[in-house]
């Protein structure tokens, strides 16, 4: 019967899937290979289907096993985290909170909230995992963290996004760049400048990719002499000249490298103001974009099917209360002169 599936079966299944070998998985679990093999066979008998395709050289997940693996990981992660929290509370430690967030949130938003949290709950522990937006969504979906804070760009069925604040997009360039002295810059003005950018796995990269897609669709309709009212409403920022700036001469996966490329004079880039402030230096300037004004929406990302521990819920409530007000004082255009 399915009700006879145990944590022992789940841990054995995950170990074999991750190791790709019964021998290595047995060593990792402290079992003998025959014992582990028997456990997996028993699990397969219970569910009524093979979870692995076995050959003389390798062990690979079957189609059913591949589908079940992320579920098994979430179940074990939830169970282990719950036990850790119970153990911590029984020892008077207050429990542990695990949060994944974008770098700009970790450095500009959470420190002030953490001060208040630890003042009220000195026995609680907190682990912060720095990730890009895509990684935050994945970590929440897999149950590896209590909740995440990042941009809203990936729709997943079990994920809830609760908005916290919006962050204006702008140009980041060297302080001696012609655009640096401007108060605002239109998107179409960027077309003739070399561009360096983030990949689509980041929240910012996803926003730019969306703009490119919108612009290319408008261009196709325009070239076909379409009379769709969407064309009439389209911003000039989505016409061919501005689309060219979205084709980076250099693409990277993190803002540290990105801003180093900008500081070296390789090109300009586009970042949300909060992310740009994290990398602020005497070599860089931030200029807000207009026509259209584009924003990144930052929010709390959580699993609908997961309830938080008491201490994690307390930290979540602090974030929901204080995070929306923190960026407001820092929305002015910045420029650190050389």
From TrEMBL:
Report keywords, A-Z: DNA-binding, Transcription, Transcription regulation
Record flagged with keyword Isomerase: no
Q: Which residues form the HTH lysR-type domain?
A: 5-62
One of the record's GO molecular function terms? DNA-binding transcription factor activity
Q: GO CC annotations?
A: cytosol
Family the UniProt entry places it in: Belongs to the LysR transcriptional regulatory family.
The entry's protein name is LysR family transcriptional regulator
What is the organism of origin for this protein? Thalassospira profundimaris
